């Protein structure tokens, strides 16, 4: 049986506009100019410190990152009510259930707030587990995915990660799970294709692809 691990931000929810808005609020707080959606897609990476290094074309300081991280999260929290589910998120979740598979959510958003917003969208009871970030601001996802699978007690050979970022694919590669990438806006689609895993602009299609991956 397949277990699907869903990413949240940029995958099940369409939050690119408020993410860019939040990045711009953070950049303004350290006296830097705003960016466009295209700038974000061209530079987004994890750890997040590297994203800001690339974006500003210089190393950011520890003090600057503390400000950037704080202001970004403050602004993002203030705009959560404007973040909708992806158009076919519910249909895709229902498709997983209809196949008799299990599913969960793993996000790099702070766990306490993630649990609240997933519940607000009526999805908490559809998931075997919902986990977020507990203590690693801006970090990479691989360690979190290992923790997630350990809590679920499922082996990586039965898991398909569905996410929107190169870091999702990197985490899957480290842990040994399959991965399908969704073109949710975090990267240019050509960069996603270059990772070497299946890429789609539909969550329902991502579920279909997950069932076709050889194990």
Topology record:
Blueprint: E1 3-6, H1 16-29, H2 37-43, H3 48-56, H4 62-78, H5 89-98, E2 102-110, H6 111-120, E3 130-133, H7 142-152, E4 159-163, H8 166-175, E5 178-182, H9 189-193, E6 199-200, H10 203-212
CATH homologous superfamily heading of the largest domain? HAD superfamily/HAD-like
Number of domains: 2
Main β-sheet: number of strands, strand sense, barrel status?
6 strands, parallel
Could you tell me how far the N terminus lies from the C terminus, measured between alpha carbons in angstroms? Answer: 11 Å
Briefly note the structural class of the backbone: alpha/beta
**DSSP summary: helix tally:** 10
**SSE pattern:** EHHHHHEHEHEHEHEH
CATH architecture of the largest domain: 3-Layer(aba) Sandwich
* CA-based shape: globular
What's the gyration radius in Å? 17 Å
Average residue-wise pLDDT: 95
CATH class of the largest domain: Alpha Beta
Number of beta strands:
6
Percent of residues in helices comes to: 40-55%
Low-confidence stretches: none
Describe the structure.
The chain is of the alpha/beta class and 215 residues long. It folds into two domains: 3-15 and 84-212, Rossmann fold (3-Layer(aba) Sandwich), CATH 3.40.50.1000; 16-82, DNA polymerase, domain 1, CATH 1.10.150. Helices cover 48% and strands 13% of the residues. The chain has helices spanning 16-29, 37-43, 48-56, 62-78, 89-98, 111-120, 142-152, 166-175, 189-193, 203-212; strands at 3-6, 102-110, 130-133, 159-163, 178-182, 199-200. It has a six-stranded parallel beta sheet, sandwiched between helices. Helix 6 (111-120) links the parallel strand 2 (102-110) and strand 3 (130-133). The longest helix is centred in the first third of the chain and has 17 residues, at 62-78. The chain is globular and about 50 Å long. The mean pLDDT is 95.
